[in-house]
TrEMBL record:
It comes from Catenulispora acidiphila (strain DSM 44928 / JCM 14897 / NBRC 102108 / NRRL B-24433 / ID139908). Its EC number is 7.1.1.8. This is Cytochrome bc1 complex cytochrome c subunit. Heme c 1 binds at residues 61, 64-65. PANTHER family: CBB3-TYPE CYTOCHROME C OXIDASE SUBUNIT FIXP (PTHR33751), CYTOCHROME BC1 COMPLEX CYTOCHROME C SUBUNIT (PTHR33751:SF13). Residues 48-128, 147-225 form the Cytochrome c domain. The cytochrome bc1 complex is composed of a cytochrome b (QcrB), the Rieske iron-sulfur protein (QcrA) and a diheme cytochrome c (QcrC) subunit. One of its GO terms (cellular component) is plasma membrane. Keywords: Cell membrane, Electron transport, Heme, Iron, Membrane, Metal-binding, Repeat, Respiratory chain, Signal, Translocase, Transmembrane, Transmembrane helix, Transport. It is found in: Cell membrane. Its main location: membrane. Heme c 2 binds at residues 160, 163-164. It comes from the Bacteria. The chain crosses the membrane at residues 245-264.
Length: 289
């Protein structure tokens, strides 16, 4: 027993365990570093682009998202793992950098050039695996393809119209939030929004909705911008509120004006008949004798 106990407490045992632990950590770090480098090379990202993107991020975004993208509690979420597509959407639509913290960040003209946005997207994409900026072939949809528009319309009405309206005109949500209008959103940003789920929107990644289905939804939205409206005036396509307002203010108002016009002309006609009767008969029309 004493011999076994002495062997278990051999002084070199701790150093051996520490050596193997450090070797394992080093191998894991080298593997992850190599994977990141290979992924960057495969996506065509250069070291100069990563460096430029890091400088732009740290000078413009780090106050809310931290110097290394881990996020700042109460100011901005972590960006590790959001992917390049999320950055391209948020910065490309002008939502980021945000002017102030609120229930929802509105879109506005972007303050960075496309090249700067690409650099920042590449840098954030290198911090963790996430959706890449989509290839144009994925979102260049044809609004004249009837089959694509039909499928996209069904998918949009099923998954998106509850918030964005059946025509993509947008709508109100709770707590000061809203679903923005999609009428001016580019096909690229529409695809990225479905891919990344910005703000209140759910994520429709390729496991939830196929790339072709997302492309069909874009085709439907493009068709609503240019296609004829068989119902006549769309009144902004924002639903029964605008339609009810139109009925009560315009239609009902015209009916009241028309009724007044009929009443006025009916009175004049009656007076004219009375005057003609009195002139031809010499009797007072009000005399009942």
């Amino acid at each position: 027993m004493n011999t076994l106990s002495a062997r278990r407490r051999h002084p070199l045992a701790a150093f051996v365990v520490l050596f193997f632990a450090l070797a394992f950590i080093g191998a894991a770090y080298a593997t992850l570093g190599s994977s990141t480098a290979n992924a960057s090379a495969a996506s065509g990202v250069t070291q100069d682009q990563l460096t430029a993107g890091q400088k732009l991020f740290q000078s413009s975004c780090s106050s809310c998202h931290n110097m290394n993208g881990q996020g700042v509690q109460g100011s901005g979420p972590s960006l590790i793992g959001v992917g390049a597509a999320a950055v391209d959407f948020q910065v490309g639509t002008g939502r980021m950098p945000a002017m102030q913290i609120g229930p929802q960040v509105p879109s506005k003209p972007p303050i960075f050039s496309p090249e700067q946005i690409a650099d920042m997207a590449a840098y954030i994409g290198s911090l963790g695996a996430g959706p890449d900026i989509p290839d144009p072939s994925l979102y260049n949809a044809d609004p004249n393809n009837a089959a694509s528009v039909s499928n996209g319309g069904v998918l949009f009405r099923t998954n998106c119209s509850q918030c964005h309206n059946v025509a993509g005109a947008g709508g109100a949500l709770t707590d000061g939030k809203y679903a923005p209008s999609l009428r001016d959103t580019s096909p690229k940003h529409l695809y990225e929004a479905m891919l990344t789920g910005p703000q209140n929107m759910p994520v429709f990644n390729d496991n939830v909705m196929s790339p072709q289905d997302k492309k069909d939804i874009i085709a439907y939205l493009l068709q609503t911008r240019t296609g004829a409206n068989p119902g006549g005036l769309d009144l902004g396509s924002i639903g029964p509120v605008s339609e009810g307002l139109f009925v009560w203010t315009i239609v009902l108002g015209l009916l009241i004006v028309f009724a007044c016009w009929i009443g006025a002309h009916t009175t004049k006609a009656s007076r004219a008949r009375v005057a003609h009767f009195e002139a031809t008969t010499g009797k007072d029309a009000t005399d009942n004798d």
